[in-house]
Amino acid sequence: MDNTPQPQESLAEYVKRIRTSLSLSQTELALKAGIHLQSLGKIERGMTTKLNSKSQRGLAVALQVPSEYLDAVVRGVALGASDVMKFCPHCWQPGTTLEDIWLSPRSKFCFLCGTGLRNSCARCNEPITSVKFRFCPYCGFPYKESVNSVVT
Q1: What 8-state DSSP symbol labels residue 8?
Q2: CB 89 within 8 A of CB 144
Q3: Paired strand residues for 127
Q4: CA distance 131 to 25
């Protein structure tokens, strides 16, 4: 399933496409996302074109897509290679922004310490959707390696 937003796809079209590909009814999606059924109906009919942060987070989890995908659809911008979130598991500090050089499509290693950049969870391999929090939303594993941890 290609869950990336398509060029010129509206929020309504995107949410409905992903919902149907997951074989979810509107009621099931609304429950999983923690939003009112009427709100979801308005989103899918194109009557709502913006999402508050709670609705965006809930829909992202329920639709199993990065929150940034919904943000891109709402803003009407295409996702590009620069939208891949990468960070150094040693140098990045949770809660801080990512270094611009890490986000370059050509960057593979940290410019500070030489460690390979990570763009997915070390435990479940799900893509990094946000570095606002320090743990993977899928498995709860911390993004940042502790000083004493050993990666195998």
Answers
A1: T
A2: yes
A3: 120
A4: 30
CA-closest candidate to residue 52, choices 37, 67, 30: 67
Which tens digits make up the pLDDT trace of 2-60? 788 888 899 999 999 999 999 999 999 999 999 999 999 999 999 998 999 889 989 98
* Closest C-alpha to 96, from 60, 50, 132, 129: 132
Both tokens assigned to 80 = 């590009």
What number of CA atoms fall less than 13 Å from residue 89's CA on the CB side?
21
Is 49 in a helix, a strand, or coil?
A: coil
What is the value of pTM for the model shown? Answer: 0.55
Picking from 15, 22, 23, 79, the residue whose alpha carbon sits closest to that of residue 48 is 15
Question: What would the DSSP string read from start to end of 77-121?
Answer: ----GGG---B-TTT--TTSPPPHHHHSTT--B-TTT-PBPB-B-
Q: Encoding tokens for residue 70?
A: 């919904």
Distances (CA, A) of 75 to 8, 125, 152: 11, 28, 40
